[in-house]
Amino acid sequence: xxxxxxxxxxxxxxxxxxxxxxxxxxxxxxxxxxxxxxxxxxxxxxxxxxxxxxxxxxxxxxxxxxxxxxxxxxxxxxxxxxxxxxxxxxxxxxxxxxxxxxxxxxxxxxxxxxxxxxxxxx
Length: 122
Description:
By secondary structure, this protein is α+β, with helices and mostly antiparallel strands. It has one domain (2-28, 55-121). The chain has three helices and seven strands. A hairpin with a 1-residue loop joins strand 2 and strand 3 (44-49).
């Protein structure tokens, strides 16, 4: 299963993150991580930053192959299950991974097998 996060959306997410990180970081299941992003499998699969939350709507970037806002339920649900399984999940992604994609004007591509997750730029 391949999930693609478009470069232009990553740019917006990084800009939002860089304004929120100086205000504080949210822990992931009680564990403190450095400034970065979360890859979330929930209703779709999306990236979000771990900067302090605001009352504004949180910016998220959905994978092109798993976006409940633009895809029929059966399509995005299949992609979510193929990447994260039946349960919800969250993986920490270092900030430099997204910075590198933005600097290269490249989408971020995650590839999943039954036992691994890898990522690459185009």
